[in-house]
Amino acid sequence: MLEATRELVELLALNSLGNDHFQGQSQDLGFPAVFGGQVLGQGLMAASRTVDNRMPHSMHAYFLRPGDHNLPIDYEVQRVRDGGTFSVRRVIARQQGKEILTGSVSFQVEEEGFDHQVDMPFAPDVDDLDSEQQHVEKVLPQIPEELQTLFTRDRPIEIRPVDPVDIFKPDVRPPFRQSWLKAQGQLPDDPIVHRCLLAYASDFNFLGTALQPHGMTFADRRVQAASLDHAIWFHRDFRMDDWLLYDKDSPSASGGRGLNRGNIFSRDGALVASTAQEALIRRRR
Question: Which of 100, 125, 170, 277 is exposed most, by the fewest CB atoms within 10 A?
Fold first, then answer.
């Protein structure tokens, strides 16, 4: 396992403080605030630590305040219900006593049922694509010198975008985006680890889908952008150390908000998860 991947798995593991309270450290990825995917992954892990023999099938979360990556994050889990088939947990993330995320996670016992899915869309083979890190190296001179080390360091999640956008010189495009992703190195077999890692990775390159029709990216100083909420549904088992296709679209932007949706497929075409996120996207006055 790559050292950066090992550090991410440990970051998501959390320390137990007792009474369904947990604490996790934060990681600086070069963003002004804590990466939202980190809080999603840690929140999902915290909720999962209070449930036995049931797998998370959905998570719905709201981002309330930007997190400070210089501070640890405290997670409180509330046991809402344990039924015969489903369990529900509420999770609250706090820094310095203030809530930065609140969400709900639903768990289900394994069972058989009706089975169908949409077909996997066409995408170039992952072996024919460059990694996101290779694309970053091409625009490195345009990145502030104090951030270049952060942007070029080893990454636990390798992303290979299809038809990548130049974040400094974007063109106007339809609201569709694809990328392949996977964790670098072999992961433990614990399926909770794989789901928490996918929750983490599902926030990468998502918000920008709604900006593509407007020829803008998060790097544009004229744009104020932030995730408002995030939902993920897990449909089928998968491994994060094998390639997954993340197919995204943005059906609408209005009122200072943009909606993004995603489907995530395994390399053999199985639909393993779906996502949705509404984001604040507005021009700075």
Answer: 125
